[in-house]
Design the sequence.
């Protein structure tokens, strides 16, 4: 009787540990971006955070999801990718809104300084569908980032569908997902180098 109770307790504890571990896997990756989000929202300054970090994580996690069609991996890792994609889109939305508000405020101050009060303050719009590589990933609207992500996802999904039977392609897809994520720090490092500061980065 005691052995059965002990086994039941051990089994319940093992299940609890598994659930906690799965939760840590799914949500652990987004935790560092919570203080970053709060900092940008409170200060209304996004210059210290590189949105290319979002690009890297979006690409890496989209490729990882597509990799699962060729090589099965556990469900918590799939949910981790889905949650990370959602988090990066939320970060992009905030950064885009803050950047546009800052540009508008700067433009208004410039107009006031030159006594151009009667003129309408306008900020040139940079759109994804303009296909201007000069402004890649520096667009004026959040919807342009969504369009870019959807275009990349559809293109990558179609290529994966065509080459899914190739073991070489599937392994290459997995490698690209891991390698892209491994380069996560590079955009932020370059941003810090350009700013000559780490201010605004959590």
Sequence:
């Amino acid at each position: 009787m005691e052995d059965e109770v002990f086994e039941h307790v051990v089994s319940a504890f093992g299940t609890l540990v598994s659930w906690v571990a799965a939760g840590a896997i799914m949500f652990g990756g987004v935790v560092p971006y919570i203080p970053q989000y709060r900092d940008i929202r409170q200060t209304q300054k996004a210059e210290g955070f590189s949105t290319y970090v979002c690009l890297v994580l979006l690409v890496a996690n989209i490729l990882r999801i597509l990799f699962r069609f060729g090589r099965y991996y556990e469900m918590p890792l799939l949910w981790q990718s889905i949650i990370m994609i959602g988090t990066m889109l939320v970060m992009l939305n905030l950064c885009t809104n803050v950047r546009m508000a800052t540009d508008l405020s700067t433009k208004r101050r410039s107009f006031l300084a030159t006594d151009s009060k009667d003129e309408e303050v306008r900020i040139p719009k940079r759109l994804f569908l303009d296909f201007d590589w000069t402004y890649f990933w520096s667009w004026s609207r959040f919807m342009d980032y969504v369009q870019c992500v959807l275009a990349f996802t559809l293109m990558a999904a179609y290529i994966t569908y065509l080459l899914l039977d190739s073991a070489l392609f599937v392994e290459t897809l997995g490698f690209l997902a891991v390698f892209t994520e491994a380069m996560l720090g590079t955009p932020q490092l370059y941003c810090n180098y350009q700013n000559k500061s780490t201010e605004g980065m959590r």
Remarks:
- The chain has a mean pLDDT of 85.
- Helices lie at 2-28, 33-43, 52-70, 75-113, 142-163, 167-182, 185-195.
- The CA atoms of residues 192 and 198 lie 5 Å apart.
- The two ends are 54 Å apart (CA to CA).
